[in-house]
Amino acid sequence: MGLMHEFTKGLWKDLAPFRVVLGLCPVLAVTKEAETGLGMGIGVIFVLTCSNIIVSSIRKLIPRQVRIASFIVIIASFVTMVELFSQAYFYPIYQKLGIFIPLIVVNCIILGRAEAFASRNGVVASALDGLGIGLGFTMSLVVLASIREILGAGTIFGIDIMWESFRPFTFMAEAPGAFISLGLLLGIMNAVSKTSQS
Amino acid sequence: MVVVLTLICTVCGVALSGLENMTAERIIQQTLLFVQGPNVEDVLDGSDNDLIADRKPITVDGEELILFVGKQEDKPWAVAYETTSSGFGGDVTIMVGYDLEQDKLTGLKVGKNSETAGIGSRVTEVQFTKQFKGLDIALEFTDGPCPVGIDAVSGATVSSTAVCEALKESVEIYPKVKESDL
């Protein structure tokens, strides 16, 4: 039961990027559409889980002085796998995500979990940690992206869902809208946890 | 310390090159389908064959080129191929289509490029590229890098020049392309 906690904490208590405020740059950039948010999320789940597993399994062999360099090489390899795989099998998503796929390497969540958790805990716990945080991150991305897509384009996953006379609020699809929606969601989440604590 | 790092890097390197080999073929296919595909369909509009499947590699001046052949009722009526030139942010690749009978341009589309978004990238827009449709291949370049009568995109001189230079190269090799067995 202690192990399941490693998985579930990523879904609310340590939800990225709202409670663990890391990896904001790609969050803002890829949440224009729900589909790209989902694509990015799945990529992060894969990289986070795999790198956590590998880092955890060889944690006793990596000397302290080269640990960050080793983590980066391992993370970069998995990100390259994601890039090649998406280029080969999901080209339209690869085109939309563009430079943000390689930028997953420097997503602070992944390096942060490798250093803070995977390098100090067992393989199963690290895998669950990676899965949980990755899943939480994906959920946040899809929620934020859905809000921005519905208000900014009137569609969700490409499907028209707003009424005929709806004029898209294009502000939401651009950078300022991203910041504001992120901030509002963060505020709402903080308010919710405050009330549930008291 | 050095040993561990070298080992990790070697293992990762080998794994990645293996994966790259495995996916290389598929990636070329996907690039053809999604990047060059739409451009080919556009400049060879009116063809009734599968333009991607009917492509053939040819050699012109010792350089390999992929030729897209447009057919109407099984008879080739137009060809299209890409040429590249140096733009503002890197290489600019254009796809030019030629009517084999009339020796005229059927269209021009800008493909892979790294031009500045909103400025240089405007050369990819239809406002600029539609000027090239219907031009005769006997183009005059006496009035600057672009053919006489073509308006460059204001504020995007380098990008416009890149497209025109790539066009010049394209038109220059057209006679040799036409000669090669269709």
Description of the structure:
The complex is a heterodimer of chains A (198) and B (182). Chain A is mostly helical. Chain A has one domain. Chain A has 8 helices and 2 strands. Chain A has helices at 2-8, 24-30, 34-57, 67-89, 91-97, 108-118, 123-153, 175-197, and strands at residues 155-156, 159-160. Chain A has a two-stranded antiparallel sheet. In chain A, helix 1 (2-8) runs parallel beside helix 7 (123-153). Chain B has one domain (40-179). Chain B has a 5-stranded antiparallel sheet with strand order 1-2-3-4-5. In chain B, a hairpin with a 4-residue loop joins strand 3 and strand 4 (91-99). The longest helix of chain B is centred in the N-terminal third of the chain and has 42 residues, at 2-43. Chain B starts with a helix and ends with a helix. The model of chain B has no long low-confidence stretch (mean pLDDT 88). Chains A and B meet through helix 4 and helix 5 of A and helix 1 of B.
Main attributes?
heterodimer, A: 198 residues, mainly alpha, two-stranded antiparallel sheet, 8 helices, 67% helix, globular, B: 182 residues, alpha+beta, five-stranded antiparallel sheet
N-end to C-end Cα span of chain A = 26 Å
Radius of gyration of chain A: 18 Å
Shape of chain B: globular
- Quaternary structure annotation: heterodimer
Please indicate the count of domains of chain A. 1
Give the H and E element order of chain A. Answer: HHHHHHHEEH
Instruction: Give unreliable regions of chain A as ranges.
Output: none
How many beta-strand segments of chain A?
A: 2
The most extensive interface, with participating residues per chain, is: A-B, 22 and 18 residues
Question: How many beta-strand runs of chain B?
Answer: 5
Number of domains of chain B: 1
Record the strand order, biggest sheet of chain B. 1-2-3-4-5
Determine the strand fraction of chain B and express it as a percent band.
15-25%
